[in-house]
Design goal:
This protein is mostly beta strands. Helices cover 0% and strands 53% of the residues. It has strands at residues 2-7, 10-12, 18-26, 34-39, 47-52, 58-60, 68-73, 78-83, 92-99, 103-105, 109-113. The N and C termini lie far apart (40 Å). The relative contact order is 0.33.
Length: 115
Amino acid sequence: QVHLVESGGGLVQPGGSLRLSCAASGSISRLDLVAWYREAAPGQKRDMVASIGRDGRTDYSDSVKGRFTITREDAKNTAYLQMNNLQPRDTAVYYCRIDDQYTHWGQGTQVTVSS
């Protein structure tokens, strides 16, 4: 069984920064796709924010390009999301997704951007 633990969320003022981490443990095989998603409110669609493939190729939603950076550290089975210049519209629960031969999700971490 694979378990993902997210950390790094919290309350930040507009223009501030946060770094999210997602560590996978358990019977995880070689990592394939790693991605971060967010839900602005319960029941709303979970939107992809950023992804990074095994080859290091990244993809970002238009709303975060130039502000967010996704990275991965396969030796530690860990993914990161550096978020800069955060704005109130970035407020959401952020979920990490890590794929090996299966898709695994974290439990979510709350990010609130407010003055």
